[in-house]
């Protein structure tokens, strides 16, 4: 356990998998967790074959007891955690009233409560590690509420607020908290998703694009604090416009892009 450790949720596929592979290549001890044990097994074999150090385990992020157990196993006697990546998430697109209520609840439970539970459980390990960091996987959908992605967008707004609050609150413990802001990424989550915004903007980012951005953000120390990291040119433009545009302009841009 001599190298730095990164704990990644939703690591069996997509962004989580790409992030695990990237950190393993950089010499990190990788803790890869998901409900998909078959996917994690494939990831473990790939990292191990390359000489990397990886631990896998089943983790339902809505289960606080499971969070505590997996963190305890990964950190071991040292009790240190360099980076936590809250990546696990689900998405269901469609008209708000057409999506069954339990599906709305699932998005809230996994996307927001799952990250909150992880942050709560990981805090003692982060606090006891010098220069610890948290990466919350936010979304460009948190710039303005998104039609056809209403609840998903709401969970990312909530995660944005939690990130901003803890970035200030945990600064005293030398814990850096940041949010990644990708637009649509070519993963299983977006397979078959057709909304006004996907038709207008396309699905242009790869998991590797986001993984590279996560690694860069966690290894770039800045004199001025930066909390939010847009991923890709489209998100960078939209995020910059949101900083200088009045609310009515953001609404109009969203209306045009989502074709509503």
Automatic annotation (TrEMBL):
Superkingdom of source: Bacteria
InterPro entries listed in its UniProt record: NAD(P)-bd_dom_sf, SDR_fam
Signal peptide: none
Keywords in alphabetical order: Oxidoreductase
Pfam families: adh_short
Entry similarity comment: Belongs to the short-chain dehydrogenases/reductases (SDR) family.
Protein name per the record: SDR family oxidoreductase
Source organism of this protein record: Mycobacterium pinniadriaticum
């Amino acid at each position: 356990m001599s190298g730095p450790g990164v704990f990644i949720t939703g690591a069996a596929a997509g962004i989580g998998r790409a992030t695990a592979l990237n950190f393993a290549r950089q010499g990190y001890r990788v803790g890869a967790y998901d409900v998909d044990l078959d996917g994690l097994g494939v990831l473990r074999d790939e990292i191990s074959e390359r000489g990397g150090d990886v631990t896998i385990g089943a983790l339902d992020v809505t289960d606080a007891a499971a969070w505590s157990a997996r963190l305890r196993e990964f950190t071991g006697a040292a009790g240190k955690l360099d980076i936590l990546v809250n990546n696990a998430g689900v998405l269901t697109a469609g008209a708000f009233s057409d999506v069954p209520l339990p599906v709305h609840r699932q998005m809230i439970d996994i996307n927001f409560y799952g990250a909150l539970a992880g942050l709560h459980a990981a805090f003692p390990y982060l606090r006891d590690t010098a220069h610890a960091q948290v990466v919350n996987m936010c979304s460009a959908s948190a710039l303005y509420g998104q039609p056809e992605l209403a609840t998903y967008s709401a969970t990312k707004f909530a995660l944005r607020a939690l990130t901003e609050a803890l970035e200030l609150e945990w600064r005293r413990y030398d814990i850096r908290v940041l949010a990644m802001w990708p637009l649509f990424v070519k993963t299983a989550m977006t397979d078959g998703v057709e909304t006004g915004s996907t038709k207008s903007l396309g699905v242009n980012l790869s998991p590797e694009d986001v993984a590279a951005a996560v690694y860069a953000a966690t290894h770039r120390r800045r004199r001025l604090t930066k909390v939010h990291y847009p991923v890709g040119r489209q998100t960078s433009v939209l995020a910059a416009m949101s900083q200088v545009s009045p609310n009515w302009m953001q609404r109009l841009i969203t209306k045009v892009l989502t074709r509503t």
